[in-house]
Specification:
Length: 184
């Protein structure tokens, strides 16, 4: 990782942490305990610009900071790390491997990332919700269709939309002056 990438990754992780710690919006009226925050958009921005590993690093740093300064238990940050890193790594990986115009490429990558996030979070929620709240599998299964699956899909797609709005100017600026790092 170059110095420029390392600095950018650290800065993006700090921005993601601040967003996660300060912006919490319920997006499902029937599940207000599930809150949207735009931190995944920042990690996706880093993943698209600097690669999937940078995106995962941003998520890891953000969640470690959240665990140290804001979380009441390790389970929330752990669940967020699994969900966000799955989304960011899958989307950034797909983005790098697809050809075509920027908005379409990011949209297709984000749909893949959202799908992988939803699929990974189904079994993850059985484990996390049991460990944190003692929920039995029947109760968790009852929450999948009305809350867990739509929340994970919506959060990923909203963050992809936010990333789409800001990533092109950032991407263009981040890669300016680095001829050895071509556009992906």
């Amino acid at each position: 990782m170059t110095i420029r990438r390392t600095i950018a990754t650290g800065m993006l992780a700090a921005v993601a942490f601040v967003l996660m710690a300060t912006v919490e919006l319920p997006i499902l009226p029937h599940a207000p305990f599930l809150k949207y925050d735009p931190s995944d958009a920042v990690a996706l921005l880093g993943g698209i610009t600097y690669g999937p590993a940078a995106g995962a690093t941003i998520v890891l740093i953000k969640d470690v900071l959240f665990l140290l300064f804001r979380a009441g238990s390790p389970f929330g940050p752990l669940a967020d790390f699994i969900a966000a890193s799955t989304f960011v790594v899958a989307a950034a990986w797909a983005y790098q491997r697809r050809a075509g115009p920027f908005p379409r490429r990011l949209f297709e990558a984000a749909v893949l990332g959202a799908t992988v996030r939803v699929l990974v979070m189904i079994p993850t929620n059985f484990i996390i919700l049991h460990l944190e709240f003692g929920m039995d599998p029947i109760r968790v299964a009852g929450m999948l269709l009305p809350a867990i699956i739509p929340f994970n899909a919506l959060k990923a797609l909203i963050n992809a939309g936010v990333a789409l709005a800001i990533v092109e100017p950032f991407h263009r600026h981040a890669l300016r002056g680095t001829p050895s790092e071509g556009r992906r």
